[in-house]
Amino acid sequence: MGINFEHRDANRHFQLETGTGHSLVNARVASYLRLDKHNTVWGGASYQIGKKRNIRFNSTSDYELLYPYVMADTIGGNMENEQYAFNGGYAVKLNQWTFGAKLDFRAEHEYRTIDPRPRGISTDITLRLGLAYDLQRYRLGVGIGGRTYKQTNNVDFYNPLGVIPEFHMTGLGTDYVRFAGAVRSAYYKGTGYIVDFQLTPLQESGCYASIEENYMPYQNILTELNALPISQLNDYQTNAQIGWKHSGRLNWTAYSGVNYENRKGNEHIAGSSSSTEYKSLITLSMFSNRKTDLHIGGGLNMGTKHCITLDARFGFIDEKSEYVDLKREMAFTKSYGKLSGQWLWRSNTHWLFEWNGNAAYYHNNSKRIIMPYACMDKQITQLVNETYTAKTEHLWRLATQIQICHTPEKWKGVGLFLNFGSEYSHTPTIHQIEINSSAGIVF
User: Fold this and answer.
1) What is this structure's pTM?
2) Sequence ranges of the domains in the chain
3) pLDDT tens sequence across 270-281
């Protein structure tokens, strides 16, 4: 169990909708228990509280999950954050078969105490089941899972003279014009699935492979208009990797992989109202965002008491966002390289020292933007241009982390740990620093 503090601050926004930084405190407990040679259980819980700063053009929680279909205003501000989470799992091994189940739950509350006063309450539950079978040299595993998400979102004004419009954004600076202004309540819901396949070697050397497919639809509903659905985001994600590992005096791995995400947005066009009740007439596919990350890499590991690990990864990113009418497009490609290292030092059974460091560079190869600037107001133009600049600039990232764990002999298996880490991100216009520290006990 332990407590963690995380602070991030930037001179400008990497993403206006997520703010320039945050200060969060998190208390957590985690356990792992072997009941016998066949059965294992694990679990954990955490509570987080803090503040997110300088959020613009976003009044909805979980922006990374729901974009572009969020509520937004032109003022923004800081957001208070409170989160509860827990997880648990069970695994049993019977001869060549292994079965496991895992549950993750998150409840989050974000709000602001000055006008405009957005409030978002979200719940996110994921259940996964897995089955593995041991062949002669390999373990073959398959898994299925389900995920359900809900959020209630509303914006209030306590000062009747200071009410400003809320917009229902639809991507790349567009919004659902018909319901802009006084409609300040929304509801998000979705239920999706997860399917995965794993192949791992049982011996010291061999091939390994994994592929995972995620699908999650998010429906945006206006609760003030008799639960009128105005949009649906369909999020498809595929992650695949294949590689070879070798164990010996020098352990090494080599791998290649792809991460792909396709976000498709559909807008429901509503007819005329009848006693504040609207009927959806037609559905149009208006927004899309496609992101592909192709990469290769490898790692080296040596030592036992003093263990050193080195890893390198090189890849190519292609991202493109489009809105159909009026035509809008934002696209770029980047190549990148990442280098990371770890040094692990163990002194008998009482001291453990771990250092991690990594460096990454993302180089922009091409970029393209198409916007109907003549039809855009000043603030939307600022939103689009700042987003485009932040996404397409060259980027450096440097990070380091140190952890110390001490288990005194007299404490009979109870120990203390301390952890400190920092990360610096740099582009020609943005400088960001992130620090985190934690302390706790282990037993």
Assistant:
1) 0.93
2) 2-442
3) 877 666 677 788
